[in-house]
Amino acid sequence: MESRILVVDDEKEIRGFLSRALTRMGGFQVELAESAEGALQKIEKEPFDLVLTDLKMPKMDGLQLISEIAKSKPETLTMMMTGHGTIDSALEAMKRGASDYLMKPLNLDELIVRIRKVLDEKQRFVRLRDFADRLEKANQELRRIDGMKSEFVSVASHELRTPLAAIKNAVQLVLKGTAGKINENQEKFLSMAERNINRLTNILNDLLNLSRIESGKIELKFENIELKGIIELMASSLRPHADGKSIKIDVEINEQLPGVYGDSEKIEQILTNLIGNAIKFTPEGGRILMTAQPLTHDGKGGHGDRVAVSVKDTGIGIPPEHLDAIFEKFHQVEGSLQRSVSGTGLGLAITKGLVEAQQGKIWVESEVGKGSTFTFTLPISEGERRDPHFRFILDKEFQRAQENDAPLALFLIQVSDERGEVGEAVLGQLEEKIKNCLCRKSDILLRREKEKILAALCEASLEGAQIIRQRIEEGIQKRPFEGEEADVVIKVGTATYPEEVASKAELFRLAQERLGG
Ligand code: ADP
């Protein structure tokens, strides 16, 4: 389709000249306006691809017109025509949103080349934007299908586990002789069946675990944990297995290892997978070393906010080209030791999922023939001050906000009286009042018992958060607390993501800082 151009000039001859030239030589569809005001009216009524305007006109000038169009019709391109000696105005026009400018007297060939260039660029931009839109839609669809796949795997594995358990039971009963005496040959075949049932059960458990991780349905019980005990326990429980290959398992733990915040059962699962692999891929007589230390990330020996746990082996190693893919599901290194015995290629994908669900990272360093070191991190717990439940909810809500590009507002509301303590009754009333001030069902209100703080998490922007805060403050003033003699002081601290802060830690810190002020 021909591009539509609106020519704006107060001189009739120039309008006529441009109209003819652009139609005949450029093949454009041209409309004319003799003033900026007239141009704005036309633009309001019908769409144009480009507005070519003169600078000097009696009332509103070309610069003002360009600003107006940039504001009200940003899709419409603008170009400015100026006389000699007015280069400043031309530059000002570009600042206000014009795509290009032309010096008078106009050279027709140049005019048409420049207009075409500007229009082509716009078309390229529109095509790119459409492409990006289509990609985003395709992505959404893929995410939806991926979710369905996880759901299917989850249901199928779950349904398969029950009959498998019954089969296992039956085989074990026959093996034990409960159903009558069996001969040596029968025992051999039934034992083989039992081994394969166990293998199948492991595969189903892995699939179920992975689909739970992928769909975000994994349940974690966060608590403050001392890692030393868990690491030593896992090392001793896997030692008998390692002894079978004369592999030594040693543990070296930094004396000042701070506590971490995580789910102990899941940490045990991570360690079992990593040590299990280390045993599997290390030849007879090798060594496995488990270490744990605070991760220093400033290079000056300062403690970061993580603990790093490593499982190092003297095994076959992993070729460099497999290092990135090793954590993907079903990825196995061709020709790895003991391929015939080995598992599903899901172990490390599950391990990675479990580490990441606890806000950690995992990576591997390896040299073929020398060994591999798998290291994962976990966040350091900040002792009693952090309420695990609160932190878990904050983690989850923050992640949700990030993924959905949604805002998140945190409100910390503290109540105290002259004696510095408030009763349960006041806290309960405050909780009720605040609940009434929140907007959506999905907004969350939590109580941090220790500091008598209520914390609310709402899907609200900075502006929305200010309104909610006002409502909270007004609500409290209007209806004071019943049954309290001393005056109650209530402080509110808020912070919003992403407008005020970029991270979860900053969100909490800023709200707390404002609470103190
Ligand atoms: P699986 O062990 O069931 O095959 P994993 O996901 O645990 O699946 O591991 C994927 C692959 O990574 C393994 O098949 C193996 O090739 C490689 N791998 C994992 N751990 C080690 C290790 N400690 N040393 C050498 N290779 C390893």
How is the largest sheet built, in terms of strand order?
2-1-3-4-5
Query: What is the N-to-C succession of helices and strands?
Result: EHEHEHEHEHHEHEEHEEHEEHEHEEHEH
Give the number of helices. Answer: 13
Main sheet characteristics: 5 strands, parallel
Rg, nearest Å: 35 Å
The distinct bound ligands, ions and cofactors come out as: adenosine-5'-diphosphate
Shape: extended
Work out the number of β strands: 16
Task: Name the helicity range.
Answer: 40-55%
Structural class: alpha/beta
Strand residues, percent = 15-25%
Low-confidence segments, given as residue ranges, are 298-303
Average pLDDT value? Answer: 86
C-alpha termini separation = 62 Å
Topology:
Elements: E1 4-8, H1 12-24, E2 29-33, H2 36-45, E3 50-54, H3 62-72, E4 77-82, H4 87-95, E5 100-103, H5 108-176, H6 184-214, E6 223-225, H7 227-243, E7 248-253, E8 260-262, H8 264-280, E9 287-294, E10 306-313, H9 347-357, E11 362-367, E12 371-379, H10 388-404, E13 408-417, H11 424-437, E14 444-448, E15 453-458, H12 462-478, E16 488-497, H13 504-516
Parallel strand pairs: 1-2, 1-3, 3-4, 4-5, 7-9
Antiparallel strand pairs: 6-8, 9-10, 10-12, 11-12, 13-15, 13-16, 14-15
This protein binds adenosine-5'-diphosphate.
Structure description:
- The protein has 517 residues and is an alpha/beta fold.
- Helix content is 48%, strand content 19%.
- It has helices at 12-24, 36-45, 62-72, 87-95, 108-176, 184-214, 227-243, 264-280, 347-357, 388-404, 424-437, 462-478, 504-516; strands spanning 4-8, 29-33, 50-54, 77-82, 100-103, 223-225, 248-253, 260-262, 287-294, 306-313, 362-367, 371-379, 408-417, 444-448, 453-458, 488-497.
- The strands form four sheets. A five-stranded parallel β-sheet has the order 2-1-3-4-5, with helices on both faces. Strands 7-9-10-12-11 form a five-stranded mixed β-sheet. Strands 14-15-13-16 form a four-stranded antiparallel β-sheet, with helices on both faces.
- Strand 14 (444-448) and strand 15 (453-458) form a beta hairpin.
- Helix 5 runs antiparallel to helix 6 (184-214).
- The relative contact order is 0.06.
- Residues 298-303 have low confidence and may be disordered.
- Residues 277-278, 281, 313, 315-316, 318, 326, 331-333, 336, 342-349, 372 line the site of adenosine-5'-diphosphate.
